[in-house]
Amino acid sequence: MKLELISTKRCPFVQRSVIMLNYKGIDYEMTFVDIENPPDWFRQISPFGKVPVLRVDDETVIFESAVINEFLDDVTPGQLHPEDPLQRALNKSWIEFGGACCSLTFQIMTAPDRQEFDACVAELGENLARVDVALGEGPYFNGESFALIDAAYAPVFIRLDEFEALLDLHILDDLPKMKAWAATLLAMPAVQSARVPELRDLFRQLIESRNAYARNLLRD
Ligand SMILES: N[C@@H](CCC(=O)N[C@@H](CS)C(=O)NCC(=O)O)C(=O)O
User: Fold this and answer.
1) Ligand 1 pocket test target in 6, 8, 9, 13 with most atoms within 8 Å of CB
2) Domains and CATH numbers, the chain
């Protein structure tokens, strides 16, 4: 089975799957598409027109990052979801919630005015405070072992780390437990491998091209 991940460099949902593939040492190819102007073949294989899409063979693609990651986990040794059904269900619930957090990081970069920007920052802070309540003592979400839920939230922390440098925006300052979780994940080679070196420039370009409110906060 030769896997191909259809990707963009900026997408946090793609990063979830890159983290998983690299953490598990799975062999794969990466194909980048221009999501603003995608090729016809991509429109045909991606049901929602979104990345990531995992091509499993000539006829089969899997979409939705959380589902892709569960598939990757299922077909490789060393299961990364908790064994206990209740814990597994709770992890899946918070993974779903993590999708909304990813989306808010995008809205923070693209909000057209201060009112919307502030509202998105506040909503993300409130969301993360809810996750913080569910967090254990670390270093990972469930404790000692890295799990799928860590791969799901690491891209949020990549973005928040970029926001600190780019916008002087420090959303985790009031959440020390979560800050420690973020630091653990950001130090992992699999997470670093999902963070392309030009990511900050891509965010800067996004903010500038949208003429977003965040443009006023950009640091040199
Ligand atoms: N729920 C999806 C979200 C994927 C998603 O929103 N991807 C964005 C890029 S970060 C996308 O492809 N957007 C293109 C579009 O909506 O047209 C997942 O988890 O895979």
Assistant:
1) 13
2) 3-74 (3.40.30.10), 85-217 (1.20.1050.10)
pTM value surpassing 0.90: yes
Only one residue has tokens 């973005």, namely: 159
Q: Is the CB of 42 under 6 A from ligand 1?
A: no
How many residues in total does the chain contain? 220
Strands 3-7 and 53-55: antiparallel
Q: What is the pLDDT of residues 49-95, one digit of tens each?
A: 999 999 999 999 999 999 999 999 999 999 999 999 999 999 999 99
Whether the CB of 99 sits within 6 Å of ligand 1: yes
* 159 Cβ inside 6 Å of ligand 1: no
| Confidence at 23, pLDDT banded by 50, 70, 90 | very high
Q: Are 25 and 19 in contact (CB under 8 A)?
A: no
